[in-house]
Amino acid sequence: MKYVDEFRQQSLAKKLSAAIKNEAAPERRYNLMEFCGGHTHAIFRYGIHELVPANVTFVHGPGCPVCILPIGRIDNAIQLAVDHEVILCTYGDMLRVPASGRKSLLKVKAEGADIRMVYSTQDALRIAQQNPDRQVVFFAIGFETTTPPSAVAIKQAKAMGLRNFRVFCNHVLTPAAIQNILESPEVRDIGSVSIDGFFGPSHVSSIIGSRPYEFFAEEFQRPVVIAGFEPLDVMQSTLMLIRQLNQGRHQVENEYTRVVSRDGNLKAQALVAEVFELRRRFEWRGLGLVPYSALQIKQPYADFDAEKFFDISSIAASDVKGCACPSILRGAKNPTDCKLFGRVCTPENPMGSCMVSSEGACAAYWSYGRFRNTGKFSARKNLESVA
Amino acid sequence: MTASVKRFAVRLNTKKDCVNMTHGSGGRAMAQLIEELFVKHFDNHLLRQANDQAGFDIEAGRMVMSVDGHVISPLFFPGGDIGSLSVHGTVNDVAMSGARPLYLSVGFILEEGYPLASLEKIVISMARAAREAEVPVITGDTKVVEKGKGDGVFITTTGIGVVPRGINISGDLARPGDAILINGSIGDHGVAIMSSRENLEFETTIESDSAALHTLVAAMVRETPRIHCLRDPTRGGLATTLNELAQQSAVGMNIREQDIPVKPAVSAACELLGLDPLYVANEGKLVCICPAEDAGQILDTMHAHPLGKDAAIIGEVIEDQHGFVQMQTSFGGSRIVDWLAGEQLPRIC
Questions:
Q1: Comparing C-alpha atoms, which of A121, A117, A126, A132 is closest to residue A81?
Q2: By 3-state DSSP, what share of chain B in percent is helix, strand and coil, each rounded to 5?
Q3: CB contact under 8 A, B347 and A382
Q4: Within this chain, do residues B139 and B212 fall inside the same structural domain, yes or no?
């Protein structure tokens, strides 16, 4: 496959692997957090762990849009579909995420709620056009990458005069979350989580550019390398991070120059700024309330805001007891540290959000099998739980 | 047949009419539908006897029987339709025991209002597939459900076959050291289906690989009777089939990503949708596990058959108390290839 295979070549991977081994000082550790689920996925899918020395550790960050959404927001979505009887349009990944009371969008769909899986905001718009006498709500989630399409949909809906289309906005912002992790007591004061450097998001940065990371590279003295999602990108970026650390530098470097510029996509940024504004605070699973970390729909487009149109109150819901998703999302725990992992929580029966999305750390651990090195799980048990 | 044609004053209008409740009521309308649509196209002497069952003699030996329900959407897709699929699926399930498939039965569940023209198209396609496979449909059943209680057409087929002497093929017979083979590229069917789904239309040249594999299987078992396992990796894809076999045989497996055939258009579509071709469905593929020393010969036999020209040895069975399927990635790392969890869903980011 042209333009993809080039970034998955084994021969280059071997060379980079040797270069990383050569660069990494054996006496120190390199704890590198990949913020994005896309990186987590690539690391596991291609087996990158095995191509770096043991003292280079990948710490999985909160950059999975499905995983960080607090249960209360999913409860809200269910409320819209069940109590307000709207047609709820959602990306497929959200369907199986556990909500309160052992519910999920998939379960309430089976019970009769009108929930439609869509592939883009355009699908949702079409559904609204085809069902003029029904209210249609698009369950908007995701980081800066998925925000511009939501902005486009809202503007189109306004231009078309659609009166039955609303957006339940859950768009969140990456830099605020990274800063929050670095300010968390576990990282800053207790030092129980050591993060030496960051892989900067790839698709997100194509929109926002590399400039927004410059502040906290300086403030927190941690190097950031914007990395593509292909496995060679991840390895090249690993090498760049290790080099910076060895040289005592903490700069924003851009490995993903084929897509990301310093300023990003100005047109998309303008579009987002026209339709959305900052929320004062937003709850993230794992991080709690993070100031100015999410977006809401601006007043001129308030008609399209599902939160304003429908009476949905904020729901404070707690995670399943024993679920370590919050700590895993902060990088404070590994999936295998969770008591539920692999015992009652598997991709077939997810208890926490990190087990649902293929970008979630737990699902990646489970599906691609890193855990088996820990000796914590018997094969029989694993097989029984998947049977 | 001339005598029966006279029984109905007006011929069934397959161009304009739709399925209605009387077509499943057991009365004259149903008899006409059976005669002028099903018997007409499936035509064979056993079906023409018009009994509630088909009677036939059978050679001595071990028989196998398999049933498969088809509830696909859309009903027509590039490279096939629910009709041809319902023949291929069951013929293949029977053939995966090494058996020669002999006969099929079919159960139609039709939704009120479904156009007879589309139904006839499906039946013609089914009849052609059965004729080409030389496995006739010899008995059947028709039911009609009210509008809104079905999805156009559901088809259930049952097949029976006879296993040649000396052949013992079963999912629990994989042994460490055995070779794992596949007869061609994976993911074609799933991608063809996805490309024609209403909300996901994209243009692709990929067609479903839907095919009856029994002649390929016959050639394989004739040349190399020591085959241990055969299975067609349909829903859940290659990954799920290998996991099933690993669990049944209590062994592990080691496969090599670079040896697994995937068409560029399939990997491109999967890349775009965030799917893994290992989990995408196939309808004309089989996984074969055999003693390593027989692998070369089987590969030659497969290559000589039109449905096995892209066959490849993709890995080997290993001892593993965990029952894991591992894969050496093309990138140079390794990972577990797990069962498919739920449905494969497109990724967001």
A1: A117
A2: 35, 20, 40
A3: no
A4: no
Q: Is B89 inside any structural domain?
A: yes
Question: Measured between CB atoms, which of A36, A231, A369 is closest to B349?
Answer: A36
Within its chain, how far is the Cα of B138 from the centroid? Answer: 19
Rounded to two decimals, the ipTM of the complex is 0.79
| Residues of chain B contacting A383 with CB distance shorter than 8 Å | 247, 322-323
Residue finishing a domain among B136, B163, B190: B163
Say if CB A157 and CB A128 are below 8 A apart: yes
Q: Is residue B323 part of a domain?
A: yes
In CATH terms, are A5-65+176-254 and A71-173+264-309 the same topology? yes
* Same domain, yes or no: B131 and B262: no
**A162 phi-psi bin (left φ>0, alpha ψ -120 to 50, beta other):** beta
Contact B282, B237 (CB under 8 A): yes
Task: Mark whether B128 and B226 lie in a shared domain.
Answer: no
The count of structural domains within chain B is: 2
Q: What is the mean pLDDT of residues A89-115?
A: 92
**Domain at B48, CATH number:** 3.30.1330.10
End-to-end Cα separation, chain A, in angstroms: 35
* CA angle centred on B72, ends B69 and B75, rounded to 5°: 120
| Domain regions of chain A by residue span | 5-65+176-254, 71-173+264-309, 325-386
Neighbours of A298 (CB within 10 A): 15
Q: How far is A82 from A80, CA to CA, in rounded Å?
A: 6
Q: What distance in Å separates the CA atoms of residue A197 and residue A238, rounded to the nearest whole number?
A: 9
Which residue in A207, A198, A89 sits closest to A147, CA to CA?
A207
Q: Are B184 and B112 in the same domain? A: no
What is the torsional sign of CA B117, B120, B126, B130? negative
Q: Which fold has domain A5-65+176-254?
A: Rossmann fold (3.40.50)
> Domain range holding B130?
8-163
For residue B303, what is the enclosing H or E element?
Answer: helix B295-303
Nearest-by-CA chain A residue for B320:
A379
Q: Are residues B129 and B211 in the same domain?
A: no
Residues in B touching A92 (Cβ below 8 Å)? 343, 345-346
Distances (CA, A) of A371 to A341, A352, B45, B255: 10, 17, 60, 20
Q: Which CATH architecture has domain A71-173+264-309?
A: 3-Layer(aba) Sandwich (3.40)
For residues B301 and B213, what is the distance between their CA atoms, to the nearest angstrom? 13
The CATH code of the domain that includes B319 is 3.90.650.10
Residues shown for chain B = 349
pLDDT digit string, tens, across residues A33-64? 998 988 998 998 898 988 999 999 998 888 88
Q: State whether B158 and B183 are in the same domain.
A: no
Give the per-residue pLDDT at B282. 96
Complete DSSP assignment for B184-211: S-SSHHHHHHHHTSGGG-----------
Beta-carbon separation of B335 and A368 below 8 A: yes
Contact A369 B326 (CB under 8 A): yes
| End-to-end Cα distance, chain B | 62
Widest distance between CA atoms in chain A:
67
> Does residue B2 lie in a domain region?
no
Query: Which tens digits make up the pLDDT trace of B137-195?
Result: 999 999 999 999 999 999 999 999 999 999 999 999 999 999 999 999 999 999 998 88
A1:B264 CB<8 A: yes
Separation of alpha carbons B139 and B107, rounded Å: 9
Residue-level pLDDT at A386: 32
Pair (B154, B185) in one structural domain:
no
One-letter amino acid of B1: M
User: Is the CB of B345 less than 8 angstroms away from the CB of A45?
Assistant: no
pTM: 0.86
Q: Does B257 lie in the same domain as B184?
A: yes
